[in-house]
Write a structure and sequence with these properties.
heterodimer, A: 249 residues, alpha/beta, Rossmann fold, 9 helices, B: alpha/beta, seven-stranded parallel sheet
Chain lengths: 249, 193
């Protein structure tokens, strides 16, 4: 397959130096990317940094959380240098609790019917359109899929969401929770086939210490690296990547 | 005698590092304290140079207690790989703590980040103290891979490396392999002067 060279406005820069290099510049704009990993792998931090870096570059963003209350989310962010409260106050970054939206829509918070899912999809699209966002995060798609009752509903929901946002040139990251040390991309085995890209975050054990790893498994439309990297998260620089040393693997 | 030894070492290091990108110093354990002292003396006498000192041997706190001027020195920053593993978590302005000496990738990132703030025109130097201790905590193959990586990264940024290897009978085959990756080797012996 021939990879088309994309110009800068067709690429959504993560602002994380090494990641953009691995992607050949950035994520193709409008892509839906699954950020997969077990607990503590850095999914939320990676997504937040992507969102805030975009906002610093005049790209408005929205973060839908289902797994964490907003006050906890912002409290955890305060420790990072990439976090800028003003971006949230100015509306460049919007943090929304999806459970509150579900409640306000009168949806059953545990299980969605087809109509519920359709109503939720509409509201997500409306918010994205109204705020004119160029970056959107759902943390996590696993928690959302749990409420969708059949594989067909999951497939339909993600496909429609991805298509609508792509039409708005909005790049979307969906976090996917998987059990630790398992090389699988999603709980339901559907999400990865509808997504344009997969970023896999894992752990690598060395002498009993856990080293975070980062790997781009798939990114449609980009000539990307598939090398496994070591990922570090620091308050000063957020997510950083370095080649993984693994002589005896 | 000790001062003559230290001055001699200081001169040898100063001369070697000017003309070589990387120097490896291999020495018996008995000469190690003299080497460290001469290195710090050199750093103190050259305030225009920028040094990053990676310690896998002694916690930063010990070095600061032994060489009091280090805490105030503006031209040296420490990356301490041993304190946290030893349960010490004292925070110092010019010292970054790494969780464990096995976190070699994190070490690479910290080294490069520390040099990021240094002016391009400033002469930059990195000390790895020591390869012996890195091998004690890691598989030798991983340390070799780490050493290649850090050599290549620092070369690209014109950073000179001083790597220390304290002779250890069981580890000598690995240390010799590693130390010879340097451009210049200094073998320190009690009777070298």
């Amino acid at each position: 397959m021939k990879i088309v060279e994309l110009s800068n406005d067709e690429l959504c820069l993560s602002g994380i130096g090494e990641l953009d290099v691995m992607l050949g510049g950035g994520i193709p704009t409008g892509s839906t990317v699954l950020v997969v990993g077990g607990s503590g792998c850095g999914k939320t931090t990676l997504c937040m940094q992507f969102l805030l870096n975009g906002a610093k570059n005049d790209e408005r963003g929205v973060f839908f959380t289902i797994t964490e209350p907003l006050f906890k989310l912002t409290k955890n962010l305060e420790g990072f240098d990439f976090y800028d409260k003003k971006l949230i106050e100015s509306g460049m970054v919007n943090l929304i609790d999806l459970r509150i939206i579900s409640e306000r829509l009168g949806l059953d918070t545990e299980k969605y019917t087809v109509e519920d899912a359709s109503a939720l999809l509409d509201i997500l699209k409306d918010i994205a359109e109204e705020l004119n966002v160029k970056r959107l995060i759902i943390d996590s798609i696993t928690a959302l899929c749990y409420r969708l009752q059949t594989p067909e509903m999951i497939r339909d929901f993600i496909f429609k969401l991805g298509s609508s946002l792509a039409a708005m040139k909005c790049t979307t990251l969906l976090t996917s929770e998987v059990p630790p040390k398992k090389f699988q991309y999603s709980q339901y085995g559907i999400e990865e086939f509808i997504s344009d890209g997969i970023i896999f975050l894992g752990d690598y054990e060395r002498k009993g210490d856990l080293i975070r790893t980062f790997q781009i498994v798939k990114m449609r439309g980009a000539s990307h690296s598939r090398t496994k990297y070591a990922m570090s998260i620091s308050s000063k620089n957020g997510v950083e990547l370095a080649p993984l040393l693994r002589s005896r693997e | 005698m000790a001062n003559v030894l230290i001055d001699g070492l200081k001169d040898r290091i100063s001369n070697a590092i000017v003309s070589n990108q990387s120097i490896g110093i291999i020495l018996p354990g008995s000469n190690y304290p003299d080497l460290v002292q001469s290195l710090f003396e050199h750093i103190r006498c050259n305030p225009d140079e920028a040094w990053v000192y990676v310690t896998v041997n002694k916690p930063c706190e010990n070095l600061f207690n032994e060489f009091e001027f280090l805490e105030e020195s503006k031209n040296i920053r420490f990356i301490d790989c041993i304190s946290r593993a030893a349960g010490i978590s004292i925070v110092k302005n010019n010292c970054v703590l790494i969780e464990s000496p096995t976190m070699l990738e994190k070490l690479v990132l910290e080294i490069m980040n520390t040099f990021k703030d240094v002016d391009v025109k400033t002469k930059k130097f990195l000390v790895l103290d020591s390869l012996t201790n890195l091998i004690i905590y890691n598989d030798p193959e991983i340390v070799t891979e780490f050493f290649y990586l850090i050599m290549n990264r620092t070369r690209a940024k014109n950073i000179h490396i001083v790597s220390i290897a304290v002779e250890e009978e069981d580890l000598d085959k690995y240390l010799n392999r590693l130390i010879y990756l340097n451009d210049k080797i200094l073998k320190v012996r009690d009777s070298f002067i």
